[in-house]
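PT: before anyone asks, these are the final sequences, not the draft ones from last week. 410 residues across everything. Please model them as a single complex and drop the result in this thread when it's through.
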Amino acid sequence: MPEKVIPDIVVGRLPIYLRALQRMLAENRHVTSSQELGERLGISAAQIRKDLSQFGEFGKQGTGYSIDYLADQIRQILNVDKVWDIAVVGAGDIGSAVARYQGFANRGLQVAMIFDNDPGKIGTKIGPFTVQDIAELEPSIKQAGIKVAMIATPSEHAQEVAEQLISAGVQAILNYAPINLAVGEHVRVQYIDPVIHLQRMTYYL
Amino acid sequence: MPEKVIPDIVVGRLPIYLRALQRMLAENRHVTSSQELGERLGISAAQIRKDLSQFGEFGKQGTGYSIDYLADQIRQILNVDKVWDIAVVGAGDIGSAVARYQGFANRGLQVAMIFDNDPGKIGTKIGPFTVQDIAELEPSIKQAGIKVAMIATPSEHAQEVAEQLISAGVQAILNYAPINLAVGEHVRVQYIDPVIHLQRMTYYL
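LR: through. Structure below.
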């Protein structure tokens, strides 16, 4: 059955809605509205209603949204009603921080392994993980069937690492190295570079 | 003189163009085209030309862009032809990684101070910085005239820290805590939450 193609910008807002809904649940809240969500997020209520309507009918006019139900539905849409294992490449400051990051809990993702090429780091512990030799990257990822990876290597290694990850079966890469990756069309890449975010704000100062 | 209001989404692409141009300069390149930039970035050449045309005329039809000139112009537009000091709040894994991050060099930003509320961390060194008591946050930031900050505290402290930062004069906040901040209209906030980026990709898996 062909599915309607949803603009990626809409898909990109769903995790933000889900995070806010999960926060409301943690506050013991059970019903919300597009107005309230919008105020929390700085997004218009109309935008939220329009985004959600792309995926179905999640609330009733006048009674708002059941937070539990809407969160469950968004989790299903985003495929995070299961837990994805993540491979982290690079055990420097950022890779280590990511491997120990507490923020993955209950959000459908968990770090499963971390690799580095530095003999001084291989075999050492980062949180619960033992740093693996990058030479084991392809067989380990293939064997574990891992589809999601984070690159936290120096820029000059990021493209090569991306190619190894893809050849091992990875289809989604979050790249912390401040460089654009060239990948095939079947692979998704997202970027985290604090300078990009900061420069977007210095424009207004 | 009233300036044309540029959509923030366009402003948000300029740092990405600048990063690619700086990379080309590092490769000893001096001329590029919107086609080449677009291929590197996965953005259409037409989009790049349209974005840049909002700010002026930076290239000549047929001869392409001088990379040095275009990079200089974008630096000026983004106000990163000078160097902004950054205050980091939170000396945990992420705050420490950010404080030691090498990727700020030559991009108009540098970490200048780091704060924490943990007596076990206050006074310790992170890279070249001594962790300061968060009680000193407002006077230190005011005295230094700092306008840019990063929050890397647990979620439950992020809003309070943001309010202290703003009261000290900060106008641009990069928030690593996975929670939305409520701030006044004169303050810019950007977010880095790896789960938001990852969930945007698991949708497609």
